[in-house]
Amino acid sequence: MRQQLARVLGGVAVLALVAGGAAACKSDDATPGAGSKVCDLKLGFFGALTGDAAGLGIHMRNGVKLALEQYNKDNADCKVALEEYDSQGDPAKAPALATKAAGDTKVIGLVGPAFSGETEASLDTFKGANLPIITPSATRPSLSDKDWGVFHRGVGNDLAQGPAAGRYIKDVLKAEKVYVVDDQSAYGTGLATEVVKVLGTVAGQDKVQVKQVDFAATVAKIKASGATVLFFGGYYTEAGLLLKQAKAAGWNGVMVAGDGVNDANFIKVAGDAAAEGTVLTCPCAPATSAKGSFVADYKALINAEPGTYADVSYDVAKIFLEGIKAGKTTRADMLAFIDGYNGTGSATGVTYKFEKNGELDPTQVLVWAFEVKGGAVVPKVEIPKG
Amino acid sequence: MDFSELFRNFPELTTTGLTQGAIYALVALGYTLVYGVLRLINFAHSEVFMVGTFAAMWTWNALGFNQNLSPSGVLISAGVLIAGLLAAVAVSSATAVAVELTAYRPLRKRNAPPLAFLISAIGASFVIMEIIGIATDRAPYGNMPELVSNKPLFTILGAEITPVQIVIVVGALVMLVGLDWFINNTRLGRGVRAVAQDPDSAALMGVNKGRVIGLVFLLGGVMAGVAAVFANLKYGFTKFNLGFLFGLKAFTAAVLGGIGNLRGAVLGGLLLGLVENYASALVGTQFRDLVAFVVLIAVLMFRPTGILGESLGRARA
Amino acid sequence: MTDVQIKNGAPEPRGFTGKLNAMSKPGRWAAITALVALFYLMPLGWFADPPGFYNPLVTFSSDFGTVLFDAAIFVLLAIGLNVVVGFAGLLDLGYFGFFAVGAYAMALLTSPASKLITDYHWLDSPWPWLAALPVAIVITALTGVLLGWPTLRLRGDYLAIVTLGFAEMIRVIAVQSEWVLGGDRGISAIPHPPGEIGGEPIFGFVDPKPYYWLVLTVIIVVVFGVRNLARSRVGRAWVSIREDEDAAELMGVPTFKFKLWAFAIGATIGGLSGALWASKVNFMNSTTFSLENSILVLAAVILGGAGSIPGAILGGFLVAYVPEWLRGLGGFLGLDINTTEYRYLIFGLVLIVMMIFRPQGIWPNRRREAEIKDRQKEVAVGE
Prior knowledge:
The complex is a heterotrimer. Chain A has helices at residues 2-25, 54-74, 94-103, 116-128, 158-172, 186-199, 216-225, 236-248, 264-270, 272-275, 294-302, 310-325, 331-339; strands at residues 42-47, 81-86, 107-111, 133-135, 151-153, 178-182, 204-207, 229-233, 254-257, 279-282, 343-344, 351-352, 368-373, 376-382.
């Protein structure tokens, strides 16, 4: 009996030694030669597909999927595959996936990461592997602080959106008493801070928790402050619940919130009646009123209304696909292609042109105010630059 | 510290805190019942509550009502409400019993160590949550009609009282008194108390232990189903991972009052609801969970078995 | 209580541990060395990427080396929690809190972006990695003592809820964006461990293997330490507390002191794993420290077999590895189902089935198993 186990263990160890030795001799895979037609390339999508934040990530993935479907239909002889990296929006899970993407030489580019935290946790890996990325939705300003080279952002960052929201509250709504709430996320706090900066003084401020359901105490404070405008920095679930409970408790003001709330689910949570009149800002155009045939195509493929950033994801995925079409089949070529890119996205109508640090050309960053009307988000006005 | 905020809103914070606390209390009863009999933290109970919220919502939707179309008239509203209540109670209690049958009973048969129950409970919790998560695309749902008005009805001592609050608090109290009476005055209730006190002697005296355990899960499920409908009335919102937070709070409430003690669970639930609200006003909403746990630890320091002590079997319960 | 195998004089080898112990000394050492060598070689070429066919054990859609690193971190956590839950029998539901303390301590001391340097000016410059590591560990150990001091008088499930509350408190504090920990904004630029070969740093950004080997080495050291401790007077005191605390107290075992010891040692190992983790990830924020992770570590310990070090290692590995492995399984089998979506569902089912058919864990501790058997005989009357 004992010999048996020893033999098994010993055998396994010998095998392992052989394996390790063999690995040392094995050379790296040859990288595909530039210029020649390479037909098994992959485009990655990096974001939350399961878990709490999946609602946002799934729409973006679908946008990328649509772009690939269309490309593969036109180029049936040389298809590009979609590789999904489901981070669950968790920065701790990001490195394993980023390393996987970096190590897979077939992955020529990446749409994402969807959120700022996971982007921050994986940029080093992408840089090390020279893998070009375009995020459709991570809006934390500090992401472009370092010259990453591989990083590109397909939308404006919070520094464009926050002050615009503040100006809208001050100049258009002309509110005197504004209550500011944020959800303590980097995104929510960032927006709230920018808004408070523009407004100067506010009627009151509170911070809530993500996943909180009962906002009674916050609602009591908002009511007591006499505020007519409530700015919420955060995402749609908490925004919907807070607004619903505030309206139910008899508060009659207007809620203003950023692109994290600009989602059909916000109205689903708050209800049509409570959501009516809510002003949502976004450094983007609403996906549901995207240009061209995007909305119809999306509905045909996915069987659902496009959500926030589905259109941006679609457009940035097409940048990569144009590159592949143009024969940029190595990461270095692709990176150079994106850095020199200057073209208009068919869904968003935005001209994609990136600055050296990866930010979208500031003249292309437009912040729009949308309004909830009759259960739908409709564009209202472009907020003028300050 | 913002005392002015606390005092200014004190009446409103009290009423909303009590309403929230009543829901905690109902969920806490499920933990306490199972703990009292089996000495086991039923980790899957949070999901029993969560499936109830979906069951009620889907029933209302099936009857043709949603967030934009609420029934008119008190009678129809009450009818729709009761239909949702029955659905939630049925689904929640069925889930609770199913958890007992699949995740606990086989382990009891094999006399597994207590920690094994904890892990299979966590497994059951994952399974239920993931099934609902996959079935609902992990999206938030707010598609519920307003069955009970949340417009203020009258004002007492500066607090506006709404029909929703009355329904929840009164409904919860009725459930609690009913449960208390059931445990204390019926044959089955005596069986529960007997098993809680001494399972072996109870078995020798002819109490069917298996049936008592099933009953305890069933009762916990009923309470969770009622709590689920109340949560729907109050928040009009649910999500596949809603149970986790409510479960955590309810479990905290049960321990605060003295786990295994029915009245303790109620006291703990109401107390927790109030503490959370007052703390939100005093030190900011971001600290409400922190304060809840600080209070819990402080109470356990001085009363190591909770405020009322643990005693499902003894006279007090 | 009664260990039949020892009484009989000629033990019949049972289970993995039994077989291992029944070997001759050189045989045993050879077996263990071979196993350890296998662990070291796992992320390398042949095993991870054999030519011609696909090794079905390798994770399909996340990087195998990084998964091994994450699994190793979980193994370390499971070994630490095993001291608390398995040896001393203290139910700790908030163990991941110590991981958070260790990780934050490391990040705050070594990162140039730490608010201790940029905002509070407590430090002039970031500490070197090697100096910060022991300090981070000591801080976590102190946290363990501070938490244990008031709470260890509580028993059983009350201790469980208090530890759970403690982990939640750490999380809530970590979420506060303005405070020193940075909340969701997190702490970036956490340095890697030092050392270079030929001008190239050993611990770089892309290659996870050196980190895995580092944690593996730490695991081996910790396992030796914990094993010796478990066989000493301290270990025997723990067993007596686990089996019957009142009886132990009567027999003159200072139960509180030994419970505190178990708690502090568990916390130290948790902090160590947090510190090692932080120095790999480069960026961390509050989202990592959710309560689910505490529960996962506990699941690891019990799945493996509470009280058994090999069990904790196996459990920790499985808990981190199985969900990642399930991630790409659908694609690998050529099925059009997204197993990523179902991985926690399957994991939950595995937990239930495992507990039904092997409630003592996969690789249980023999004494503990005997205790359970003993208990079964007593309880069998009631059912």
